[in-house]
Amino acid sequence: MREFLKGRVVVTRGDITDCDVDAIVNAANRSLLGGGGVDGAIHRAAGPELLEECRTLGGAETGEAKITQGYRLKARHVIHTVGPVWHGGGRNEEKLLEDCYRNSLMLAVENGLKSIAFPSISTGAYGFPMEKATPIAIRTVKEVLEAEPSLEKVCFVCFSRDDMDVYVENASVMLGD
Ligand code: APR
Predict the structure, then answer these.
(1) How many CB atoms lie within 10 A of CB 56?
(2) Distance (Å, rounded) from C-alpha 144 to C-alpha 3?
């Protein structure tokens, strides 16, 4: 695990469903009714009540974020956000990915949450290149943390060693050691 910004940003390797935070962020699809990858893992760990609540949300557009309870997860809440599918960069993907991080963080602030954990949104099934997605994630989190002192901790949870190396390399440059 590596810490930045006096511990307000943490980069760690592991399974986001194990995170004991106020909210974990789910890389969902527009139906918000579950899927594979981290979406599947979160629904499996949270149990069926999560899907029942998701059915009441009416889906979400790319870049949007919606909040539910966390049910059987350690996390008290799940913030579901829909990342952009990577089509080469010509369809506003970078701005939409930034919206996912910003809207998820602002939803946490609006709900009085102090700690939040993100997976690497869109970099799996949705094909967003890690080397492009990671600086967007870190820059957006930095901007919101500077504006929102109520947010105490943002964790980037990397599912692989390689992903963690990309986050640590970018965070060291962008956030200072
Ligand atoms: N904990 C943390 N990170 C995870 C976990 C986990 N348990 N499982 C997967 N990841 C990582 C992947 O390694 C990847 O870096 O989450 C990142 C996002 O990958 P995906 O889950 O494939 O999400 P995404 O690329 O945003 O695609 C979303 O996939 O599962 C479906 O319903 C989902 O349609 C949506 C699409």
Answers:
(1) 9
(2) 17
pLDDT, tens only, 86-99: 999 999 999 999 99
CB atoms < 10 A from the CB of 122, how many?
Answer: 27
* Cα torsion angle, 80, 95, 125, 16, sign: negative
Q: Is 33 in the pocket of ligand 1 (CB under 6 A)?
A: no
Mean pLDDT, range 109-114, rounded to an integer: 98
Pocket test for ligand 1, best of 17, 30, 38 (most atoms within 8 A of CB): 38
Query: Cβ(171)–Cβ(11) under 8 Å?
Result: yes
List Cα–Cα distances, 74 to 40, 55, 100, 122, 161, in angstroms. Answer: 16, 22, 22, 24, 24
**Which contiguous run of DSSP H or E holds residue 45?**
helix 37-46
Nearest to 121, CA basis, from 148, 144, 103, 146? 103
